Amino acid sequence: MGSTTRSSGAAARGGARRGGRHRGPGALAASLAVGALLAAGCATGTGGDGGEAVDYDADAPVGGELVVAGFGTGDEVGAVRLATAEAAMPDVDVQLVEGDLDVQQFLSAVAADDPPDVIGANRDQIGTLAARGAVVPLDACLEGEGVDTSVYRDSALGQLTLDGALYGVPEFNQVQVVMANQQLLDEAGLTLADVDGSSWEAVGAAAEAMAVREDGDLQVIGYDSKLPEFLPLWAQADGVRLLSDDGRTAHLDDPAVVEALTFAADVYARQGGFSAVKANRDAQDFFGAENQFATGVLGAMPFEQWYLNVLDEVSPDAPVVFGTVKTREGEPVAYTAGSAWAIPAGSGNPQAACRLAVTMTATDTWMAAAQARVDAVEADGRRFTGLLTANTEADERIRTELVEPQDLPEPWASGVDAVYAAEDASFSFAANPADAEFTQAWQDAANRVVNGQMEPQESLERAQQEAQAALDAAWAEWDERG
Amino acid sequence: MSAADARPGPATGAGATRAGRSPRPPLSRGARARRRRDTRAALLFISPWVVGFAVFTAWPMLYSAYLSLTDYDVINAPSFVGLDNYRRLADDPDVVLAVGNTLWYAVVQVPLHVLTSLGLALLLERAGGRTAGFFRTAFYLPNMTPPVAVGVLLLLLFNGQSGLVNEVLGWVGVDGPAWTTDPAWVKPGLVLVSLLTTGSSVIILLAALRDVPRELYDAALVDGAGFWRRTLRITVPMISGPLFFVTVIGTISALQAFTEAYTAYFGAGNSTYSNDAALFYSIHLFRTAFEYLQMGYASAMAWALFVVILLVTLVQLRLSRRFVYYEGDQR
Question: What ipTM does this complex have?
Answer without folding.
Answer: 0.75
